């Protein structure tokens, strides 16, 4: 069943929100799923989630699993952020480079990754897969291999020198690192993984954790086989984002300014 005619108000929200125009009106003005949905539906769930009366249930299709209103989390009014709260939250996320000597419980990591899966992705492909280090030793081994890569390629001598002195400028002594990878032949693997990582960073911030993009590791993972081997990257997958994370040692009480907006308006 796609539509419960007793519940449907014929408001048109499902027609308007379907990204591929897969819902049309029947003779009575009720929504009807086009046959093309069997091949084209991207299972974004918009039609089910936007319906204010819970009248729509997506049927099982070759391209998408069935989806009922009860499977969509209801939005709780009490949890709505004011614009001021949202502004401060977003502005106060910082790249964290000093970490406590404390592991993040695995269930917390899973909860954060779950939130990251709500990031937008091309065609709702959600291609990001994660590799997460469980221990500081595993994290440090990745930093060490990154230094090895730098030494072989004769780049970042300062970072190498610091490492030799016991100072980790690669993963900053973080207890964990999360690496996002995806099939290279997807639509937009780099954008999709980056957005998932951006969500992860914000989710970490919301949960009192800190994170920082691990650009050096990302670069090394691209071409240095020992890192790819240690990560156990599937064939054809590329590393498109990496974040070190843990509990921050310091709290930022102020928000540093940014360059400001540069915009060109067109009319
Ligand atoms: C793609 C990317 C790669 C980055 N790589 C590193 C890195 O390797 N090491 C690091 O300490 N910070 C890294 N950063 C963090 C930036 O330095 C940081 O976002 C910037 O200085 C602004 O600070 P904020 O994030 O606290 O606002 C990276 C950020 C991005 C987006």
| Beta-strand residue percentage | 5-15%
Overall outline: elongated
CATH fold annotation of the largest domain: NADH Oxidase
Estimated helix fraction: 25-40%
Main sheet: strand order: 3-4-6-5
Radius of gyration: 23 Å
Q: How many helical stretches?
A: 10
Overall residue-averaged pLDDT value: 96
CATH architectural designation of the largest domain = 3-Layer(aba) Sandwich
Would you state the CATH class of the largest domain? Answer: Alpha Beta
Order of SSEs, N→C? Answer: HEEHHHHEHHEHEHHE
Distance between the termini: 45 Å
The bound ligands are: flavin mononucleotide
Which stretches are low in confidence, meaning pLDDT under 50 for 5 or more residues running?
none
Helix vs. strand class: alpha+beta
Number of domains: 2
User: In the CATH hierarchy, what is the superfamily of the largest domain?
Assistant: NADH Oxidase
Number of strands: 6
Query: Main beta sheet, described?
Result: 4 strands, antiparallel
What is the compact description of this entry?
The chain is an alpha+beta fold. The chain has helices spanning 13-17, 37-40, 46-50, 83-91, 106-116, 136-153, 157-164, 189-206, 215-223, 225-231; strands at 23-25, 31-33, 129-132, 176-183, 210-213, 237-246.
Give a description of the structure.
This protein is an alpha+beta fold and 267 residues long. The protein folds into 2 domains: 13-71; 87-246, 3-Layer(aba) Sandwich (NADH Oxidase), CATH 3.40.109.10. Helix content is 35%, strand content 12%. It contains 10 helices and 6 strands; from the N terminus they run H-E-E-H-H-H-H-E-H-H-E-H-E-H-H-E. The chain has helices at residues 13-17, 37-40, 46-50, 83-91, 106-116, 136-153, 157-164, 189-206, 215-223, 225-231, and strands at residues 23-25, 31-33, 129-132, 176-183, 210-213, 237-246. A 4-stranded antiparallel β-sheet has the order 3-4-6-5, sandwiched between helices. A two-stranded antiparallel sheet has the order 1-2. Helix 6 crosses helix 7 (157-164), helix 6 (136-153) crosses helix 9 (215-223) and helix 9 crosses helix 10 (225-231). It is elongated, with a radius of gyration of 23 Å. The termini are far apart. The structure holds flavin mononucleotide. Residues 94-95, 97, 212-216 line the site of flavin mononucleotide (FMN). Flavin mononucleotide is lined by residues 94-95, 97, 212-216.
